[in-house]
Amino acid sequence: MNKSKVYFTKDISAAGLINIYKALGVDLKGKVAVKISTGEPGGHNFLNPNLIKPLVDKLNGTIVECRTAYHGKRFETADHWQTIKDHGFYSIAPCDLMDEDGEIEIPIKNSEHLKGYNIVGSHIKNYDSMLMLSHFKGHQMAGFGGALKNMSIGVASRNGKAWIHSWGNTKEPDKLWDYVENQDAFLESMAEACEGVINFFRPENMAYINVANRLSIDCDCDSNPHEPEMADIGIFASTDPVALDQCCYDQVMNSTDKGKMSLINRMQDRHAIRTVERAYELGLGNREYEIINID
């Protein structure tokens, strides 16, 4: 398999984001969903609305999210809408909680854990293409969050998140915590869920961007995240989500930044690379890549 192309810029700005999207050479057609994390109230590391606005405008996109499986300020529909407004996203673009009117099952061809289907917000049917616009950082359960996590847990409905976290054992958010002992099964289930989303849209209708800034060991879903200990890296983009996440993982692992160890320890402790490995095994992308610097 030929190496996948991963584009990179150190310019973490609205212009840098536009430029790296242009470098991808893709044309997301029709109604475009821009999947981000709107961030848990109290946290402050989620992507800045002013950073992403010009790209969302260029795509005539709709910012999309789904409710959380944990009982925070994005669990209930009204609370999540308030968060979207408070964090500045509602004022920059159309927004959509994809599971506020229910959920649908989409098929998965290869599922060891998820029993042949993924559960996503019903509004996914309203979109023709999707940009996975992710904040790359650590995560308490997954080890790190990038394109694959945003596409799996992020696109899943509230019940779908429970389905993935429990590796196909329950759809009830309050019961998912009974199934957290099998870490690799959870990570593999995220990869399986990604297959469902990619098959739904088809690969040519998807693109992936990871913004590697505010590199906390904690996710944007944390209301009190640990302050970053390593410096910002830049923006990475690819049409291959496996290569993209592998590249970002490698950039942290191979960094000369003295503050990298807390994030490395978080990723290794949670065996985070297993999601990338399983996505590769499922044929969702390539772990071999070349970096193309667009600066």
What does this structure look like?
The chain is 32% helix and 19% strand. The chain has 295 residues and is α/β, with parallel strands linked by helices. It has a single domain (4-293), classed as Rossmann fold (3-Layer(aba) Sandwich). Strands 4-3-2-7-10-11-1-12 form an eight-stranded mixed beta sheet, with helices on both faces. The chain has a two-stranded antiparallel ribbon with strand order 5-6. The model has no long low-confidence stretch (mean pLDDT 97).
Detail the topology: elements first, then pairings:
Layout: E1 4-9, H1 14-24, E2 32-35, H2 49-58, E3 62-65, H3 77-86, E4 95-97, E5 103-107, E6 117-121, E7 129-135, E8 137-139, E9 143-145, H4 147-152, H5 158-165, H6 183-201, E10 206-212, E11 234-238, H7 241-253, H8 261-269, H9 273-281, E12 289-293
Parallel strand pairs: 1-12, 2-3, 2-7, 3-4, 7-10
Antiparallel strand pairs: 1-11, 5-6, 8-9, 10-11
